Amino acid sequence: MTWIDKYFKGDRVIWLIVILLSIFSLLAVYSSTGTLAYKYQSGNTEYYMLKHFIILLLGLGIMYASHLVKYTWYARLSKVALIIVIPLLLITLIGGTHLNEASRWLTLPGIGLSFQTSDFAKLGLLLYVSRMLSIKQDNIKDFKSAFIPIMLPVLVVCGLILPANFSTAAVLFACSVCLMFIGRISLKYLGGLMLIGIAGLALFIAIAKFTGYTGRIETWSNRIENFNDKSSGGNFQAEQAKIAIAKGGILGVGPGNSTQRNFLPHPYSDMIFAIVCEEYGLWGALVVVGLYVLLLYRAILLIRQSPGAFATLFAAGCSFGLVLQAMINMAVATNLFPVTGQPLPMLSMGGTSIWFTSLSIGILLSVSRDVNKEGGELAHA
Question: pTM of this prediction?
């Protein structure tokens, strides 16, 4: 037994995906934060690279520690997580830190650390839905005892995220519906849930317009209009991203040689995929896309061999959510989708978003560790 076998459990391919994405992340963030460094750090370009390296290192530490814990413990903690999530979202909505007319961040008093409560909410809700679906399998078709206890938290959590972050609420809602479909919830109930979600969004827009709170709605409307109106040049971010992709061509301009980093808003977070395309070209972009697709493929293998309903459902929800978020981010960068503000998981610069993503992948690895112990197909695939 090698030291890798001894200390790193679970699916090695998922570990390799995480390491490769982290390397891409470190290189792309270092390249894209030059302007930021000259603006805020007197030209110290190593500052943000070092900061991001520490964040990634802590994320890997969280992933490693969480993958050593048996996945059933996370099922037990899911209800507690949901109890914590809802008040945190309420506090954030009422008195959180505002940026771009949205209250997404909560600043912890005393230490000054800010984090997006929606990152915690995504993980907490997926854990809760997975656990409840696994518990209710014997009477999963019953509306009152099975569907209602799952549906209400989904609507509440997504509804609290919606006013400040429509894209995150939509992605989380889609993942929850996908989980319920896999968990054998009746299609007529799922159809009703989607109608309730659409009606809730329409009601929110109507109330916002009536009360004069139209800041975020105008932002959503402008993004859609800019995306559809090709004659006026469209959205500035999307146009600059397309220039970056065109400059990259097949082979790219080389690491650290990006010029569009000086023009792209947030090239180190929302638009980091455009920097990858510019510096590493089509081949580099295909490698990044391939890593996310491979993550989904390994999760599908894991789902086939998962030891229990909770493990199967969480693996499906976690992998689908991460890959869907990644595809939306890349679709925005390539102007296939309106600007949403979704970061690229494990690649965009961030703090708590990387840590909660690392925790999610750590739980996924914990599930795969149990599969490998039982000699499942995943261990040899």
Answer: 0.88
In a shared domain, residues 58 and 98 = no
What is the arrangement of strands in the sheet containing 114-116, beginning at the earlier edge strand?
97-99, 102-107, 114-116
- 223 in a structural domain: yes
Task: At 187, list the tokens.
Answer: 């299609």
Domain containing 95: what range?
A: 78-228
Select from 341, 343, 364, 318 the least CA-distant residue to 175. Answer: 318
How many angstroms separate the CA atoms of 126 and 45, rounded? 38
3-state helix, strand, coil in the chain (%, to 5): 75, 5, 25
Q: Residue 97: helix, strand or coil by DSSP?
A: strand
Contact 290, 335 (CB under 8 A): no
Specify the number of domains making up the chain.
Answer: 2
Are residues 210 and 296 part of one domain?
Answer: no
Residuewise pLDDT in 10s, the chain (381 residues): 565 666 677 788 999 999 999 999 999 999 888 888 888 888 788 888 899 999 999 999 999 999 888 888 888 888 888 888 888 888 887 766 655 555 566 666 655 567 788 888 899 999 999 999 988 888 888 888 778 888 899 999 998 888 878 888 889 999 999 999 988 888 888 898 899 888 888 887 777 777 666 556 666 666 666 666 655 555 677 788 889 899 988 888 988 888 888 888 888 888 899 999 999 999 999 999 999 999 999 988 888 887 678 888 888 888 999 999 999 999 888 888 887 778 899 999 877 889 899 999 999 998 888 776 654 444 444
Helix (H, G, I), strand (E, B) or coil at 111: coil
Query: Per-residue DSSP letters for 135-201?
Result: HTGGGTT-IIIIIHHHHHHHHHHHHHHTTT-HHHHHHHHHHHHHHHHHTT--HHHHHHHHHHHHHHH
> Is residue 251 assigned to a domain?
yes
